Amino acid sequence: MKVCIIAEGCYPYVVGGVSGWIHNLINSFPEYDFTILGIVTDRSQSGKFKYELSPYVEAVYEAYLDDKDYSNSKKKGRRTRLTKSEYRALRSLVINTRVEWDAIFELFQKRRYSTDDLLMGADFLHIVREYYDKNYPRIVFSDFLWTVRSMYLPLFLMLKTPLPKADVYHCVATGYAGVLGAMAAKRYGGKLILSEHGIYTREREEEIIKANWVKGIYKSIWIDQFKKMSLLAYERATIVTSLYEHARELQIELGCDERKTTIIPNGIDVDKFKNLPGKLPEDEGYFNIGAVLRVAPIKDVKTMIQAFSFAKEKAPALKLWIMGPADEDEAYASECYELVESLGVKDVIFTGRINVAEYLGRMDVTILTSISEGQPLTILEGYAAHLPAIATDVGNCRGLIYGEDDDFGDAGILTHVMNVAEITDAMLRLYRHPEIRKKMGEAAFKRVENKYRIDQMKQSYYDLYDRLEPGVD
User: Fold this and answer.
1) Residues 104-142, buried b or exposed e (16+ Cβ, 10 A)?
2) DSSP 12
């Protein structure tokens, strides 16, 4: 069976939780042939893989959200004109009526329209004008037109993307990945699986609300665009998985048929983190706090550093280990280094990318101060090493720390997002109370052993793939 994994902005170009999950999933199924369809910003990222690809990956295809128009249209220099049915389909997409997605797929996959010509043509202009007159007549039309053009450019580029043939298309988010998965499944008669680690629509909504590049009414227009794409993925998917119950509830709230939904938690190789090398002589007298993450804004490393600086004043034995790559957002990483310098705080170690198993045995607790998460693998890996976690109340962190269907007890301390005081207090509490730390560490290990083992996750996805294999009713 051929399985095509479709992912946006992660594997194999970026190191992180979702990328690691994809890598482990592929390596779990030697009986299947995998291809990757990776969505990246532009061609400058082409082929720049951060992972050594599994031998089970036959090929990597790429889709670009920003690209030149390589159309071979014979009508160069002339604006594309649509047929009546094509016009109706494009209008349904822009006007937000019931979108005629199958006609849209044909419009881009079979006719191979020039994206530039279509966006600059009379048909698109008339559709946008109708949308404007009906909904937003009080704002400047020229601004509105160019905003809508910029909004549809990446979607149109996705719709023109050449698609690999597969039996199953497994999207690791809705959004652009979901559009490609739905289009490929329609074209080749394959089945579509959707696995969300975070709820893509909600994440984009939060980003847009906070963003400076889009203002006023345009925020809601962009949010509606992502909702539209996500609804397509929910409607066309055969099975929709989530990591925990609240995420499943959000999927249903956003339009997914409840009967399609199922929960498959993350899983890790617990045995890999047993009998780890312990503390080194250089760790003598230190209380090591380990943060396994990408140094990126979404991980809110700055808040972590600020909290640590306050805790360090009261407990000089504390040492913060920030373990992970810093090349995703080099400007942000530089700001983190400068913050450490300006605060004059000692014992903050940036290791870069590491083998986590070589470091976890030296830690006393793990910490994650993200502003958005799904079900963090780094917390689960710490649990396997009997380490309690300090984490912000995002994604499934509450469920991981307090438990959802067990009575093992607290496995760490939950804090509010960007709350320096709470994070500082959590560091100090676990440092000052080794008996509480030990009890939480044991609860953590029991929880990961009970529900979050990789063999459990593998079996769930094996059963899912097996159900969708061609010839299986």
Assistant:
1) bbbbbbeeebbbbbbbebebbeebbeebbeeeeeeeeee
2) T
Tens-digit pLDDT profile for residues 366-401 = 999 999 899 999 999 999 999 999 999 999 999 999
Strand partners, 355: none
Question: How many C-beta atoms surround the C-beta of residue 149 within 10 A?
Answer: 17
Distance CA 421, CA 424 (A): 5
- For residue 195, is pLDDT > 90? yes
CATH number belonging to the domain at 270-451, selected among 1.10.3720.10, 3.40.190.10, 3.40.50.2000, 1.10.10.10: 3.40.50.2000
Stretch 418-431: mean pLDDT = 98
- 71 pLDDT above the threshold of 80: no
- Name which CATH class applies to 2-67+163-263: alpha beta
Exposure b/e, 311-350, CB count within 10 A at least 16 = b: bbeeeeebbbbbbbbbebbeebbeebeebbeeeebebbeb
Q: How far is 82 from 246, CA to CA, in rounded Å?
A: 43
Residue 313 per-residue DSSP state = H
Secondary structure element (H or E) that encloses residue 64, with its range? strand 57-64
First to last CA, the chain: 15
State the virtual CA torsion across 175, 180, 181, 182 in degrees, nearest 10: 90
Work out the pLDDT band at 328, boundaries 50, 70, 90: confident
This prediction has a pTM of 0.90
Q: What is the pLDDT of residues 218-271, one digit of tens each?
A: 999 999 999 999 999 999 999 999 999 999 999 999 999 999 999 999 999 999
CA 362 to chain centre: 29
pLDDT at 78: 54
Element housing 326 (H / E): none
Nearest partner of 395 among 421, 422, 420, 414, judged by Cα: 414
Domain ranges of the chain: 2-67+163-263, 84-151, 270-451
Which positions ≥6 away from 251 have C-beta within 8 Å? 196, 199, 234, 240, 242, 261
Q: What is the mean pLDDT of the chain?
A: 94
**Do 2-67+163-263 and 270-451 agree at the fold level?**
yes
C-alpha closest to that of 366 among 351, 354, 381, 352: 381
**SS3 state of residue 5:** strand
Is 296 in a helix, a strand, or coil?
coil
C-alpha atoms less than 13 angstroms from C-alpha of 12 in its C-beta half-sphere: 22
DSSP secondary structure string for all residues of 383-452:
HHTT--EEEES-TTHHHHHH-SS--S---EEEE-TT-HHHHHHHHHHHHH-HHHHHHHHHHHHHHHHHH-
Judge whether residue 164 has pLDDT over 60.
Answer: yes
